């Protein structure tokens, strides 16, 4: 969520999708009482779904202690991963998503039976065979049509996470550009990345960062 005005649409999307995945209905929705969760359309949606909205008292985050503690855990993990990868703080969002992906796939004391949140939510044990180190090196294959005969066949990039809706690893890549490759790669669509059986799907959008450029795998 980039701005708070997205809270309604994203919450609605999450609730609807979760009910389909779990075959369960949401009963309680707890928030910190922020205005983004108290708009008329938000209240109307919760009422329509029969969801009870519980709000914490102002300036008492301890009433929402589980969520506050998890937020801190995710931020601490993201800080460590960014430092280890040597990436700027502008990639904090990617690091937090990566941390969330990991925590959902490891056992927690909050759940009995040594199971993971992923198992409780989806009813299936997750595979960890696809886990990669945040910020590790990957190589993007350059199609024959986008390079000359003696040009390099790959471009060194940085692994940032996982694709949610495809059988792929990375939804974005950080590319550290040199002058020769810049104009070429702005025009091309990335097709395959291979690193120890790591396969990434095609890219259809290239965005430009401050010290590096992002390739969005859609």
From TrEMBL:
InterPro entries: Integrase_cat-core, Retrotran_Ty1/copia-like, RNaseH-like_sf, RNaseH_sf, SH3_retrovirus
Domain Integrase catalytic, chain residue ranges per copy: 1-125
GO terms for biological process, alphabetical: DNA integration; DNA recombination; transposition
GO molecular function, one term: RNA binding
Pfam families reported for this sequence: SH3_retrovirus
Superkingdom, taxonomy of origin: Eukaryota
Keywords, ordered alphabetically: DNA integration, DNA recombination, DNA-directed DNA polymerase, Endonuclease, Hydrolase, Magnesium, Metal-binding, Nuclease, Nucleotidyltransferase, RNA-binding, RNA-directed DNA polymerase, Transferase, Transposition
Reactions it catalyzes: DNA(n) + a 2'-deoxyribonucleoside 5'-triphosphate = DNA(n+1) + diphosphate
Cellular component terms (Gene Ontology): nucleus
Name of this protein: Integrase catalytic domain-containing protein
Organism, scientific name: Hermanssonia centrifuga
